[in-house]
Amino acid sequence: MTPLPAIQVIPQLPQQRALPQTPTDLRRLRVDEFLQARSLSPNSQRAYRRELERFLEWTDKAWSDITPRQIAQFKADLLEERLKAAILILVKGYATPGKAAIVVTSE
After folding, report:
1. Is 25 in contact with 44 (CB distance < 8 Å)?
2. Residue 96 has what pLDDT?
3. Is the pLDDT of residue 61 over 80?
4. Quick check: 70 and 89 in contact, CB under 8 A?
5. What is the DSSP string of 44-81?
6. Long-range contacts of 52-58 (CB under 8 A, 24+ apart)
7. Which of 6, 40, 58, 85 could form a disulfide with 44 if both were Cys (CB 3.0 to 4.6 A apart)?
8. CB 56 within 8 A of CB 28
9. Residue ranges per domain, the chain?
10. Could you tell me how far CA 73 lies from the centroid of its own chain?
11. DSSP state of 98
12. What's the rounded Cα separation, in Å, for the pair 75 and 77?
């Protein structure tokens, strides 16, 4: 019988705590890519970013899972939100019925 090789003991290294990482929202990276791929003025970039962020807050789906029906629902929700804002303005007296501050249209 042959003897077993000697076992070498390696001292344990101090364990480092892993810092908690927030998962990267790939949808927001796609927004960045979209904006960088276009020659937009700074104002246009801010407007696109603001509205795309608004959409991302509305849904938790990946871009590839978005359907035309969901886009239509988002649009309907925006129109409803604007209508509520217009009613609130009228009720609080910030505008008169003949001179409403917000015009709500449906396309």
Report:
1. no
2. 55
3. yes
4. no
5. HHHHHHHHHHHHHHH--S-GGG--HHHHHHHHHHHHHH
6. 53/28, 56/25, 56/27, 56/28, 56/31
7. 40
8. yes
9. 25-66, 67-107
10. 16
11. G
12. 5
Under DSSP, the state recorded for 39 is -
Neighbouring residues of 40: CB distance < 8 A, sequence distance ≥ 6: 48
Compute CA distances 86 → 11, 72, 73, 92, 97, whole Å. Answer: 70, 21, 20, 10, 10
Torsions phi, psi for 13 (to 5 deg): -80, 150
CA distances to 2, 17, 19, 42, 87 from 52, in Å: 71, 36, 30, 15, 26
Indicate the burial class of 67 (C-beta count within 10 angstroms; 0-12, 13-18, 19 or more): exposed
pTM exceeds cut of 0.70: no
pLDDT in tens, 1-41: 677 777 777 666 666 665 555 556 788 899 999 999 999 99
State the pLDDT at residue 32: 92
